[in-house]
């Protein structure tokens, strides 16, 4: 990266600064000039109908996709040209909406990959990495399945595994893509508590969700995407009461 | 056995290999109803649906439209008029919406009535009519769910079984789908709705069954279940106050 | 399998195998040299194919480069055998590095197809270079020392297997396996997938090339057709997959067993040997789709029912 990109930013630099991020796929604009910033330990709720561009936006932040236009700054460094694996080293971790476990590895081995290759390039010692992984497995409630093969896990356990893998990377920015899909209201409450604990340890989080009550409880701010554009941004009460948001996304049935 | 019972399940047991998952399920769906089956993940809802569709071995009593279907193959269950909309939709992504819908008519004998089915389905889902030539893989999540529902309706089912319709969908879309279910019930289709979103399910269903670790633990009209403190505590979580 | 158990097995097997030449049986020693070299090729393939999940059908190009590098160094440049081996290995590793970066961008079947043509292409190139004997080939100095070649081949197999044993327990190996299981997830978790894949290919090339070089000096006559033998590609893959891809001992065991079966069949019923060998492979795929190593674990846990389950899973 150039010296200019490494230039010292002021101490109050946001953790994440997205400027006019845009993604085009063969003429279809999937994300259109979306800008926002994130402060440390903030939780941003990202909501909107399917096809609104939420996952595409996350993909551009994690490095899975390169933006067609716009800039992305992470902790004072410009990262829109940086490959995904290096962003992991910088401290960006994510879960995948369509879960991606390592099927033939055990839960522990899955999570250990995160510990081995995450923040700052990860832990070099296999033994330390396994120990760190063990802690993440216990934190996410998978301890009784720690030696089971990942492809034998059921739905909710797979979601826990996605989260444990991302946590093992010791991320500074965590991108959660629909981790609560398919959970009952009580299970949702449990996950909300876990995410709040993660935030309390100093991690900045973006949460994509359709479970409105979870978004309402967790988010410091909410950003609403619709057809690739930002149509609302602000504190939960205001955004969830915004007429445009209700029409485009929430509907009128009480959640 | 009641004459009106379209689907009758008694003492259903099923499992995977040596692991039993269902322990004597009793469930009834009468013609013209919307019945919902709710419960946590791992409770056995999907296993129940697999047993009903005869994708897995099962024991007990399983009657559909007066016939014993326990020894049917999945194809025979489908032909009898029990059609499932699977979790995850399972559309043919490289085929157009219209072709996907046409695939739903694969086993129908009354070919002459198919155009009327297309009309019915496009009437219920105008957005599918608009997008009829688009590839199903390019639809949004909500549109895909509509396409999956529509495809199942194209098979002219007697009983429509819907598995986790609301997964990953915007609330406003879920509302639309619930309205569609209410409409097709008026058109004579019976619905068994398996759902995680208990609120959504109770808002449209007449009766509900709550499943926990392979057993039915609560059953009754949804108006009653909604008020039952045990159900509220376990399933409606912090929003029980509403 | 516990790492110490694996290492113990390797140690015991190495000692036993090292003692074989003492029997003085020329037939056994010759069979041994072939089997050991083939096992090395299978084990080297295992690094890229079994652990990283990139199925190569072109590894014989490295074997051929090792063959030609050693032969050319010894006949045209008058270098000593070890130096010749180094040249052959070096050439193979350079090719792996240069080719690896573009070709490893392809995934799955596309990668496999791309590797298919490598060997034939290199054979065509070499057969046009007069300096290395073009189509006629080269003749190396004769050394009657089958015992020495046997021990060399064994040492090579040992080195390769110990490398794989290290890999199976190392951070680097975890990265390779993560790439195999889900490359995109691995990248998102911080694995430098391009670098790791290329290193795996280079390691694979190194051991395969040295095997080719030893073979060249032993056989003393090489030409493009035999050095870049296309059947070698398939043999490596079959041996490794039959024995258990992604395991430490699997490819070696697979190579020994299948080589032995082929030898036995060839000496009994020479005309139908290839046919029967094919039959053995088919049965192996039906009963042990995930390799022998998987079978041992499976039968131990579930008994004979495990074999029946494999049949049902394949809908036979």
Write the layout of secondary structure elements.
The complex is a heterotrimer of chains A (255), B (242) and C (316).
Chain A: E1 16-25, E2 28-38, E3 43-47, H1 54-62, E4 69-74, E5 77-78, H2 84-90, E6 92-94, H3 107-117, H4 126-139, H5 155-168, E7 173-177, H6 185-200, E8 204-208, H7 212-218, E9 221-226, E10 229-234, H8 236-241, H9 243-250
Parallel strand pairs in A: 3-8, 3-9, 6-7, 7-8
Antiparallel strand pairs in A: 1-2, 1-4, 4-5, 9-10
Helix pairs in contact in A: 3-4, 3-5, 4-5
Chain B: E1 5-16, E2 19-30, E3 34-39, H1 45-52, E4 58-64, E5 67-68, H2 74-79, E6 82-85, H3 97-103, H4 114-124, H5 126-130, H6 141-153, E7 159-163, H7 171-186, E8 190-195, H8 198-204, E9 207-212, E10 215-221, H9 222-227, H10 229-236
Parallel strand pairs in B: 3-8, 3-9, 6-7, 7-8
Antiparallel strand pairs in B: 1-2, 1-4, 4-5, 9-10
Helix pairs in contact in B: 3-6, 7-8
Chain C: H1 3-19, H2 26-51, H3 60-75, H4 81-103, H5 108-126, E1 138-139, H6 146-169, H7 171-181, H8 183-188, H9 193-219, E2 221-222, H10 224-227, H11 230-243, H12 250-268, H13 273-287, H14 292-302, H15 305-313
Antiparallel strand pairs in C: 1-2
Helix pairs in contact in C: 1-6, 2-6, 2-9, 2-11, 2-12, 3-4, 3-5, 3-9, 4-9, 6-7, 6-9, 7-9, 11-12, 12-13
Structure explained in plain terms:
The complex is a heterotrimer of chains A (255), B (242) and C (316). Chain A has 255 residues and is α/β, with parallel strands linked by helices. Chain A contains 9 helices and 10 strands. Chain A has helices spanning 54-62, 84-90, 107-117, 126-139, 155-168, 185-200, 212-218, 236-241, 243-250, and strands at residues 16-25, 28-38, 43-47, 69-74, 77-78, 92-94, 173-177, 204-208, 221-226, 229-234. Chain A has a 6-stranded mixed β-sheet with strand order 6-7-8-3-9-10, sandwiched between helices. Chain A has a 4-stranded antiparallel β-sheet with strand order 2-1-4-5, covered by helices on one side. In chain A, a hairpin with a 2-residue loop joins strand 4 (69-74) and strand 5 (77-78). Chain B has 10 helices and 10 strands. Chain B has 242 residues and is of the alpha/beta class. In chain B, helix 3 runs parallel beside helix 6 (141-153) and helix 7 packs parallel to helix 8 (198-204). In chain B, the strands form 2 sheets. Chain B has a 6-stranded mixed β-sheet, sandwiched between helices. A 4-stranded antiparallel β-sheet of chain B has the order 2-1-4-5, with helices on one face. Chain C has 316 residues and is mainly alpha-helical. Chain C has helices at residues 3-19, 26-51, 60-75, 81-103, 108-126, 146-169, 171-181, 183-188, 193-219, 224-227, 230-243, 250-268, 273-287, 292-302, 305-313; strands at 138-139, 221-222. Chain C has a two-stranded antiparallel sheet. In chain C, helix 6 (146-169) crosses helix 7 (171-181) and helix 11 (230-243) packs across helix 12. Chain C is globular and about 55 Å long. Classes of the chains: A alpha/beta (255), B alpha/beta (242), C mainly alpha (316). Chains A and B meet through helix 6 and helix 9 of A and helix 7, helix 8 and helix 10 of B.
């Amino acid at each position: 990266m150039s010296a200019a990109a490494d230039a010292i930013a002021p101490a109050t630099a946001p953790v994440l600064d997205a400027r006019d991020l845009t993604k085009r796929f063969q003429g279809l604009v999937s994300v259109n000039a979306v800008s926002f910033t994130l402060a440390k330990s903030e939780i941003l709720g990202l909501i909107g109908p399917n096809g609104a561009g939420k996952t595409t936006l996350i993909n551009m932040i994690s490095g899975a996709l390169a933006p067609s236009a716009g800039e992305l700054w992470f902790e004072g460094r410009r990262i829109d040209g940086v490959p995904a694996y290096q962003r992991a080293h910088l401290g960006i971790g994510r879960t995948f909406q369509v879960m991606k476990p390592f099927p033939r590895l055990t839960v522990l081995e899955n999570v250990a990959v995160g510990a081995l290759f995450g923040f700052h390039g990860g832990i070099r010692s296999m033994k330390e990495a396994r120990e760190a992984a063990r802690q993440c497995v216990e934190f996410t409630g998978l301890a009784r399945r720690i030696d089971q093969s990942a492809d034998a896990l059921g739905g909710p356990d797979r979601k826990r595994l996605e989260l444990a893998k991302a946590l093992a990377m010791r991320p500074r920015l965590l991108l959660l893509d629909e981790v609560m899909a398919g959970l009952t209201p009580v299970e949702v409450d449990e996950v909300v508590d876990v995410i709040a604990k993660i935030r309390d340890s100093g991690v900045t989080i973006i949460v994509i969700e359709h479970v409105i009550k979870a978004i309402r409880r967790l988010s410091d701010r909410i950003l609403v995407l619709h057809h690739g554009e930002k149509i609302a941004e602000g504190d939960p009460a205001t955004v969830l009461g915004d007429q445009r948001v209700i029409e485009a996304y929430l509907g009128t049935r009480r959640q | 056995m009641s004459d009106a019972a379209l689907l009758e399940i008694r003492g259903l047991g099923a499992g995977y290999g040596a692991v039993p998952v269902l322990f004597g399920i009793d469930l009834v769906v009468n013609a013209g109803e919307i019945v919902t089956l709710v419960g946590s993940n791992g409770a056995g809802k999907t296993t129940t649906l697999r047993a009903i569709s005869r994708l897995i071995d099962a024991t007990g009593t399983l009657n559909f439209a007066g016939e014993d279907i326990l020894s049917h193959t999945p194809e025979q269950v489908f032909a009898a008029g029990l059609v499932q909309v699977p979790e995850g939709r399972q559309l043919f992504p490289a085929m157009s919406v219209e072709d996907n819908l046409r695939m739903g008519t694969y086993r129908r004998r009354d070919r002459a009535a198919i155009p009327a089915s297309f009309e019915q389905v496009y009437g219920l889902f105008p957005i599918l009519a608009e997008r009829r030539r688009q590839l199903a893989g390019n639809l949004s999540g909500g549109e895909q769910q509509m396409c999956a529902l529509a495809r199942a309706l194209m098979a002219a089912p007697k009983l429509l079984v819907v598995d986790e319709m609301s997964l990953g969908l915007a609330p406003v879309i879920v509302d639309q789908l619930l309205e569609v279910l209410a409409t097709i019930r008026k058109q004579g289709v019976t619905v068994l709705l398996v759902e995680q979103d208990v609120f959504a399910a109770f808002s449209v269903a007449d009766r509900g069954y709550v499943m926990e670790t392979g057993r039915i633990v609560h059953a009754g009209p949804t108006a009653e279940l909604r008020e039952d403190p045990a159900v509220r505590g376990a399933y409606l979580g912090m929003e029980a106050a509403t | 399998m516990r790492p110490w158990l694996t290492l113990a097995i390797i140690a015991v097997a190495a000692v036993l195998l090292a003692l074989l030449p003492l029997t003085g049986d020329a037939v056994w020693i010759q069979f041994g040299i072939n089997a050991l070299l083939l096992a090395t090729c299978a084990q080297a393939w295992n690094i890229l194919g079994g652990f990283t999940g990139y199925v190569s059908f072109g590894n014989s190009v490295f074997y051929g480069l090792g063959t030609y590098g050693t032969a050319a160094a010894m006949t045209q440049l008058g270098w000593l055998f070890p130096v010749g081996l180094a040249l052959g290995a070096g050439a193979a590793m350079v090719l792996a590095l240069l080719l690896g970066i573009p070709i490893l961008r392809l995934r799955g079947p596309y990668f496999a197809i791309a590797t298919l043509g490598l060997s034939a292409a290199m054979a065509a190139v070499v057969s046009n270079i007069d300096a290395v004997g073009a189509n006629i080939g080269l003749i190396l100095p004769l050394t009657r020392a089958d015992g020495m070649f046997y021990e060399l081949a064994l040492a090579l197999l040992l080195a390769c297997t110990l490398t794989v044993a290290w890999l199976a327990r190392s951070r680097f190996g975890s990265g390779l396996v993560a790439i195999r299981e889900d490359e995109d997830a691995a990248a998102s978790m911080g694995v430098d997938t391009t670098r790791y894949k290329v290193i795996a290919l280079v390691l694979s090339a190194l051991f395969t090339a040295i095997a080719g070089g030893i073979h060249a000096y032993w056989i003393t006559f090489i030409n493009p057709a035999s050095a870049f033998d296309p059947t070698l590609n398939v043999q490596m893959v079959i041996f490794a997959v039959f024995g258990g891809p992604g395991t430490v001992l699997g490819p070696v065991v697979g190579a020994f067993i299948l080589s032995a079966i082929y030898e036995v069949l060839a000496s009994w019923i020479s005309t139908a040997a290839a046919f029967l060998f094919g039959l053995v492979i088919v049965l192996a795929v039906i009963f042990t789709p995930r390799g022998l190593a998987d079978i041992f674990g499976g039968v131990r846990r579930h008994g004979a029912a495990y074999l029946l389950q494999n049949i049902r899973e394949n809908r036979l």
